[in-house]
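Researcher: Please predict.
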Amino acid sequence: MSRHPTVKWAQRPDKLFITIELPDAKDVKLKLEPEGKFFFSATSGSDNVPFEIDMDLYDKVDVNESKTNIGLRNICYLIKKADNKWWSRLLKQEGKPPIFLKVDWDKWVDEDEEQDVGGSDMDYGDFDFSKLNMGGGEDFVVDAANKDEGTDGSDEEEEAIEEVSGKRDSQEAASASGEHKTKA
């Protein structure tokens, strides 16, 4: 008997995101029909345990514009809807959805928030912005001494620079005039 892998889904008006969480999937088979029939089967694990999903999607889809990506941990499907509209649910059947079907909150956008996402032409997919190392981590250090005094320390730095450059100027003037200081 086949098992059901965890399936996550999200939508936009023109497409569906379906992610099947199945690590090390082998013999992956997908059948997607224009009427919305979605069939998936694969095996996983050292015992080659069979997994299967057979769903009737809410509405028609465009099979030719749909895409698949098989990764090490999951299988991602980007399914193009036939009509550019929001679906009230993923499956045709009404009532409680199957227990293996979950909302993908990482990709979910509400219908009224769609314009806030950055436009319909910008799709970031699974891109994780937290891995960009945009600062604020260990390298971000605030000097507590300068913070308490209410100064940023730039005055002391300027004075130190002037002092060093003043010594250098007097040494250069002394060497130009032929004077040499000797240390005893």
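Model: The first strand starts at residue 6 and ends at 11.
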